[in-house]
Amino acid sequence: METPAQIKLTQPRGTALINMSVAALIVAGLYFGREIFVPVALAVLLSFVLAPFVSRLQSLRLPRVVAVFAVVVFGFAIIFSLGGLMVTQASRLAEALPGYEQTLRNKIETLRGITGGGTSTLQRASEVLNDLKTELQNTKASSPPSTTVLQQPSDSKPIPVEVRQPDPGALNTLVAIIAPLVSPLTTTGIVVVFVIFILLQRQDLRNRFVRLAGSDDIQRTTAALDEAGERLSRLFLTQIAFNAAFGVAIGVGLQLIGVPSAPLWGLVAMILRFVPYVGAFISAVFPLILAAAAGSDWEMLLLTAVLFVILELLAGQVLEPVIFGHSSGLSPVAIIVAASFWTWLWGPVGLVLATPLTICLVVVGRHVDRLQFLDIMLGDQPALTPSQLIYQRMLAGDPIEAAEQAREYLKTAPLKEYYDSVVTGGLGLAAADNRLGHLDAERLDRITDTVRELVDDLEGHEDALVAEQASSNVNFPLATLEAVESGKDETRLGRVWRAPRSILCIPGFSKLDEAAAIVLAQLLKRRGYGAFAEQYDAMSVSKFFSLDLTGTELVCICYADRPSNAKLHYAVRRLTKRTKSASVMALFLGPAAGELDKVPGLFATTETFATALDAAEQKARADLAAPTGAADGGQPVVIFAG
Length: 642
What we know:
With 642 residues, this protein is mostly helical. Helices cover 69% and strands 5% of the residues. The protein is elongated and about 130 Å long.
């Protein structure tokens, strides 16, 4: 009989196999049904582009049918015009190519002379193959296969007979011309029909998709549809406009340089720039070859290369971040993987459609729980939260990456907020694993050492507010109080709170508590207090009686996890017996303390580093404002913060 643990292991394995089988069937269906799915995908994406224009015309009181047909006719007229321009330019280029052959040969010979003039092995092999090809052609020419010799008597001459195909009729010629155009014309017709019907029935299709996805959660389905539609429309429209401007700039630049068929290469650059990262550089290959063949020297080639490099750097690094603002929502690795996958699946059309199709998958994964792995694998959001990341770095013993993350976070937030939101979360995850027994002594040491090195690395950090107020010392409570109080005793008390061990941060009972004490001690030092963090075993029987409490005004017991009532009562009772002048407070970074706030002898209970700092400041203010006798040995002020 299987145990519950075995059942839990076998169920996910079967689910994973089922999911993999379904994914394989979907991929196979997309591959073998590409003749249908490619036009449908093109139509859907084009409908996202044209839908805003239809809505704009409808807002002008134009009927929906008229608006749809007007937008579709205008849009496809532009597409067909660009296609006709490409065909015309390609035909002219094909007629002019033979004239550039000799120029290109001369430049190749020049490059060969520059590289040494020697005959390489590859060149000799090429010459041998060319000679062999010439001999084979001569052999075929000497005995043509289409000539049959009839045997005659030896005294007569042979009579040559030639076999000729009959002249094709008008119908065969028409078929030969139309056959290559059948497939693209069919695809175009399907795309046009689908675009028209999608735009006409957009609301009905949306409602049916909501019903199919699940009418029980209309809010989530609507949010997914709105996000996908808005993101794809914005992405496509901005990309089309931006890439068109890029293509125009390339075409004008090539025309000024003198490269033949400059409008053709501008259109190619516009289309290929939809391919992420490498599309613009791929579009530069043919213009560079043509510039080398058409120019009498190397100037045209160099100017063409400079034109593509400058425009791509300007577009990709300067203009795109400003115009697009946010990214497409895909990670760079996901874009490359998606381009490779969709190109393998659907060919060149898949390369152009890779980014928008992958965006759709990410949006679906963001709103459908069972497909959330798509958002994690393909999206540009961090795979781990800041707290999860720092905990993972603690386990790995990597304070360098943790410090890099901290510096990035501290660009927009103060240090105490980083400790409260990120480090506290990481220590909470560690405490949860420690309760389950997943952390051994070595890993606990690694976590503590990582936190200590991280704190040391951030020692010199200054928040923006601190840097602005450094001249007036407004951020330091003791300096503020001493500026207000001019009495001699108050200044003496200020010096007391600046003593090296005036505030003692003692870990509760574990190494994770020591990490919390290290962080709190640094924050207190930055406020001007003389704080010191003890080691994790400071409350143990062997070390407690040797604990130095000389000059200590405040003791803070730090807990990364919620302690038991017995442990907390025991720790507070021992500290209050050991010291008569110092006050005791507790810091709980784990779950809410609840009834622990009522522990007798506690000056304050806090749940964040920020509230612990406030409690220490209130204690210092109370001592500085009280008479000397009360400050030295009077009753402590009870404050509950958090």
